[in-house]
Automatic annotation (TrEMBL):
Name of this protein: Polyketide cyclase
CDD domains from the UniProt entry: SRPBCC
Lineage: superkingdom: Bacteria
Matching InterPro entries: Polyketide_cyclase/dehydratase, START-like_dom_sf
Pfam families per the UniProt record, alphabetical: Polyketide_cyc2
């Protein structure tokens, strides 16, 4: 009887420690990643703003559902195997700057993504700046020590780079 109680106590202490650590971590974070593309800014812009085609090039994205516009903003819901999230288009300056954000404040996380497209001869650089907020202390620990703040950005840019390469003339 003593061993199960010790094990239960260890689990409780570990859980409390992880929760306490998560409470000490910052609620908000900023992450930035870039991708150089040998395509014009307009081609990158078209791919970024063609919401209905996201499932064709984003691994793990099952489908996208258009939602009614709200406050003059385009909105959509993305469905993945682990759940769904509603997003909205916050600001757009074609073809150089796009800002999207999570549109559901009830989630344990939130944030915005600013896509900055900088042209150069023969292509452009896309920089994505994530300004995230992780409300759950447990999720903060996972993001900080397990997955990292940039994993999603890197996965997104890898998929986008592959999509743009396959759309390139002569590819």
């Amino acid at each position: 009887m003593r061993r199960p109680l010790i094990a239960l106590g260890a689990v409780a202490v570990t859980g409390a420690s992880v929760f306490a650590l998560g409470r000490c971590l910052p609620l908000k974070h900023t992450a930035r990643r870039s991708l150089e593309v040998h395509r014009p800014p307009e081609a990158v812009w078209e791919t970024l703003t063609d919401i209905d085609r996201y499932p064709r090039w984003r691994p793990g994205l099952i489908r996208v559902e258009r939602l009614p516009d709200e406050r003059g903003r385009i909105r959509w819901r993305e469905y993945e195997s682990h759940g769904d999230v509603a997003y909205e288009l916050v600001d757009a300056t074609p073809p150089l700057r796009l800002v999207t954000a999570i549109a559901d404040p009830r989630l344990p996380f939130g944030g915005s993504w600013t896509y900055e497209i900088t042209p150069w001869p023969g292509g452009c650089t896309l920089t994505i700046v994530e300004r995230g907020e992780i409300r759950s202390p447990l999720f903060r620990v996972v993001a900080r020590f397990v997955t990292g703040y940039t994993a999603q950005l890197e996965r997104y840019l890898t998929a986008l780079g592959a999509r743009l390469a396959e759309e390139a003339p002569g590819a």
